[in-house]
Amino acid sequence: MKSIYIGIDIGASYIKYGFGSTVNGLDFFESCENRNTDQISLYETLIRIINKLALEHLNNRKIAAIGLGSPGIIDKISGMIISNCPNMKYWVGSKPGQILEEKFSIPVILENDADLMTYGEQRLTHRHHKTVLGVTIGTGIGCGLVSNGSIYHSNYRSALELGHTIIVDDGKLCSCGKKGCLEAYSSAASIMKRMKDETGRAFSLDDILMKYYQNQIVFTDVVNDAFNKLSQAIANTIMVLGVNIVVIGGGITESKFFDITTLAGKISRYLDRFSLDDISIESAALKNKAAVWGGITIAENYMENQPH
Ligand SMILES: [Zn+2]
C-alpha cells in the first residue's frame, strides 16, 4: 500500500491542509476558515479534517505520518504550545501532536507554522540552499530558520520571534501584551487596523495595497511606515544570521497587489555591501501551500529516518 503524508497548517484565520509526497507532488489541498474559539472545537475541526482526508480522498493509501504547523512557541520536549499565541490565546496549553497521535495512532510532527513554511520552501524550492530564513506576514508576523537543512530550534524557549521584537520604544500595544512590537505596526492585520484608525473606514488589504501603489496619501504614509519597520527588522536579522536567502510568505503575499520588489528594495537599503552582494529576497514560491508542503515533507523526512 502506498504511503501518503498529511500536512496541516493551523492559522488564526484559516486552516489549510492536504496530502502528498515529494515524489508524487501535492495530491490534494483545501482550506477552511478557523472560526474556533476554544481548544475542544479546534480539536474537533482537526479530527474532522483528518477523517475527511482519510475517508474521501486517500483511495486505499495509508497515512504514514502527519506534519502539523501551529502558531505559538512549542516546547519540543512536552509538545505543548507554551506561549506567544496572541491571535489564538485559547490554544496555549494544548498538546495537539500528542492528542492527534493518540486519536489516530499515526506519528504527528508538530512545528511552528512559520518554521514549516520555511522548511517547505527550503525542501522544494531552494534545495541548493541549506540555510533559508522565512518570514510570514499575515494576522501576525512569524519567522523561521532552516539551518543546514534542519529547522532551527532554541534549547531554551523561543527563537526568531521577529514579530515581537521591539521596533518603537513605548509604542503601540501588541496583542502579546508588550508595547512597540513589530507585529503591532507591520502585520497585515495591523496595517488594516492602522488604516481604519486613520480614516475611520474599513479597507481590505487588496484595497490598501492598490491605493498605496496609486500613491494615495494616508495609504502611502501607513504602508511606507509599516514596510520600513518590517524591512529594518528583516535586514537586522539578515545581518545577525548571515543568511543569503529570505522567503516572504503569509497572507499578505496572497494579495494580487503585493509586490515583493518594493519590500526587497526597502530591505536592501538597510543592508551593508557585504550582505547585499549575494542576498536574494523572494516571495514564497509555494504560495499559501508552503506550510502544508512543509508539513508533508517534515512528516516524510521523519519516517525516512525511523529505523526499519
Ligand atoms: Zn508582541
Write the layout of secondary structure elements.
Elements: E1 3-10, E2 14-21, E3 25-33, H1 39-57, E4 62-70, E5 73-74, E6 81-83, H2 96-104, E7 108-112, H3 113-124, E8 132-137, E9 141-147, E10 150-151, H4 183-186, H5 188-199, H6 205-213, H7 219-241, E11 245-249, H8 260-269, H9 273-276, E12 280-283, H10 290-304
Parallel strand pairs: 1-4, 4-7, 8-11, 11-12
Antiparallel strand pairs: 1-2, 2-3, 5-6, 8-9, 9-10
Helix pairs in contact: 3-10, 6-7, 7-8
The chain binds zinc ion.
Zinc ion (ZN) is lined by residues 164, 174, 176, 178, 181, 183.
General description of the model:
Strands 3-2-1-4-7 form a five-stranded mixed sheet. The chain has helices spanning 39-57, 96-104, 113-124, 183-186, 188-199, 205-213, 219-241, 260-269, 273-276, 290-304; strands spanning 3-10, 14-21, 25-33, 62-70, 73-74, 81-83, 108-112, 132-137, 141-147, 150-151, 245-249, 280-283. The protein is globular. The model has no long low-confidence stretch (mean pLDDT 94). It is built from ten helices and twelve strands. It folds into two domains: 3-118 and 288-304, Nucleotidyltransferase, domain 5 (2-Layer Sandwich), CATH 3.30.420.40; 127-284, Nucleotidyltransferase, domain 5. The chain starts with a strand and ends with a helix. Helices cover 38% and strands 22% of the residues. By secondary structure, it is α/β, with parallel strands linked by helices. Helix 3 packs across helix 10 (290-304) and helix 7 (219-241) crosses helix 8 (260-269). Zinc ion binds next to loops.
